[in-house]
């Protein structure tokens, strides 16, 4: 991702999201034609009122005045207030509910909330105290003292079946006669994600990143089940083959990961079948795009899809940028292996740009588009654990972007000013989510400057060979910081230990 500097993110932490727009069925690894109706109009709306409990208690109904509270002993997920059900330690029931109307015509809707559970129960087998979450008469989930946790976790449920209905969202917590269990709920909401996001829509243009499940990674550290973050990415994934059939109205274009072939569908419809090998994810968009195409000097087909509002001159400029960027990166790190490259251009992207295999979202920006295309190598071809080591793709990509744009980074380390002793280029997204104002500066800025400095230590040709060899040896694999440090050390007789310490590259 190329974050927009100093972007303030709305902390809509427990959104219930309903996705509107075009419903396009997909079937990984199977090209199954499938008729999909267009969703009816779905009006974006936040349908849970006061989901963070910050505006007094209305319109919530609570069984006693103390359920919505800010009293000591528990803390909010966001803001000051939260809903504290139970925690009494004797036979007791607390309830909390409000009536919501989920807009009709929404193809999907998700109810989410954040939940923390602590308990004095010591059993590991008996659910003595329970919290039930319901919508209407449907029980979404039941939690108990056995689900105790530190901090909050977000719970999400598909409630699209309730589109067009007015129903109660309700929580009920019951305790037995002894040993307290506290069920603490915060930030409840239902929103329809309108907006030019990685997974959202901008007017008639649907942007479908991270829609298909990818397998979680299990390695020596165990399962990687890291949370989504708006500050960057945590999409640690391995390479896989995809074949996806998109059955869509013929009036829509569907840029997608991989190489696409169109065949006629039922009346007025087209089936676009996209196949991709050794990619870490599959993303697409759908809408009445303006499309222009070209081929890079090295032979990569490039398509630029523009939303309405992008001038033809800007689209042509982005096509020129994309063609030169894909060749510039390929010449340094290895030939682009994913067939065609699609760039979707929309100046409303709050995040700047976003990379997916063979498919990028971007503003009209030479630097940002060159960056996203650089990710085809750093994250795409050479994978990494983005959550724990975001610098491995972002700093490497920003460094590659500088090279592609003939920027040498001279003196850029001079502006480095650490915010604390804990701040390091190699910190994880868990750290950056708690220090989000520093993420771009340190991981992208200091990170690329560290690589420029490493180039100055090693020499241009040794650094170029180091990165080319590192990409080759990790082609379609996963890289780590320690492997990169070892490869760099093997390329020079200079002891790099002080260099890593000065540049705060740990691992
Ligand atoms: Zn990036």
Automatic annotation (TrEMBL):
Residues 331-502 form the Peptidase M1 membrane alanine aminopeptidase domain. Residues 1-31 form the signal peptide. The keyword Zinc-finger does not apply. One of its GO terms (cellular component) is extracellular space. PANTHER family: PROTEASE M1 ZINC METALLOPROTEASE, PUROMYCIN-SENSITIVE AMINOPEPTIDASE-RELATED. GO terms for biological process: peptide catabolic process. This is M1 family peptidase. Keywords: Signal. Residues 55-64 have a biased composition (Low complexity). SUPFAM superfamilies: Metalloproteases ('zincins'), catalytic domain. GO terms for molecular function: metalloaminopeptidase activity; peptide binding; zinc ion binding. Pfam families: InhA-like_MAM, Peptidase_M1. InterPro entries: Peptidase_M1_aminopeptidases, Peptidase_M1_dom, Peptidase_M4/M1_CTD_sf. It comes from Actinacidiphila oryziradicis. Coiled coil: none annotated. Residues 53-72 are annotated as: Disordered.
